[in-house]
Amino acid sequence: MSFILGLTGGIGSGKSAASQWFESQNIVVVDADVVAREIVEIGQPALQQIHQAFGDWVLLENGALNRRALREHIFKNPLARKTLENITHPAIRTSIIEQLQRAQSPYVILVSPLLFETNQHQLTQHNLLIDASEELQIQRASQRDDQNIEQIQKIIQTQMSRQKKRDFANDIVLNDGHLEHLYEKLQPLHHKYLKLALEKK
To answer: How far is CA 109 from the centre of its chain?
Structure first.
């Protein structure tokens, strides 16, 4: 298996911009958020398990997952969140491992907002944190998503604290400026990871 880099950051930190930059350097990116959506598509075992656990209200008329209703339900109900995680986390992990093993690039990136919270960092050899102040996170996320500031603050509160993430990370990039500024900081790290990947072979 290739050298695996974990890439994480809180909501609005810029981890998606960072992962897109790495993709432009021909590095394969496995996105845990994309995998999380794939495993609950119609016909997937995880969707059937969610339906069994929560009931008919969790499905739309076409049989797809009612994401909004489920999101609102688990926000109010920690026990329901646990039930959902017990179904989805093992399925996500299995799919991530399969995709990492198939990756054909000098190194491969696992990008996940919950890299440390869900122990996905156990799958990686090295971890990069894209960091930003809470003020910037809220500003960016409110401009990008149709969520209000209160919802964004709730999401930040459910995620691991910035300091704890910094403790876990091997490399930290502070994304407090323009995208070009972020890319300039990523360039030397890309060369570092190419070197680490070569050493691992």
So the answer is: 11
pLDDT in tens, 113-151: 989 988 999 999 999 999 999 889 888 888 876 678 888
Token pair of 123 as six digits: 């799958």
Hey, do 1-27+108-201 and 33-104 end up sharing a CATH topology, with the first three levels equal?
A: yes
Instruction: Specify the amino acid at residue 185.
Output: K
Radius of gyration of the chain (CA): 18
What are the boundaries of each domain within the chain?
1-27+108-201, 33-104
Give the rounded distance of the alpha carbon of 173 from its chain centre. Answer: 16
Q: H helices of 77-178, where? A: 78-102, 134-144, 149-158, 162-168
CA 81 to centroid of chain Cα atoms: 17
Alpha carbon of residue 53 to chain centroid: 25
CATH for the stretch 33-104: 3.40.50.300
Q: For the full predicted model, state whether its pTM sits above 0.70.
A: yes
DSSP three-state, residue 120: helix
